[in-house]
Amino acid sequence: MINLAESVTIPKALLKALYVGLVKVDEALATIEELMDREGLERVRRAEGEYERGEYVTVRSGGEIENLSSE
Length: 71
Prior knowledge:
Blueprint: H1 12-36, H2 38-52, H3 62-69
Helix pairs in contact: 1-2
């Protein structure tokens, strides 16, 4: 049996906002972690150079990624 004193009702909109906020915090922490790591920072620098030189491909689906990896 559920003790009502141990449960809480949260509006769906608030729950969604909390979830979105937590995802953003998680992404920010992952970015900070990558930049704090010497190898991670080097990967970011290489990627920035590739981007500036136009050495990238834009895809719209996972299938397109699979096609690229089989080339």
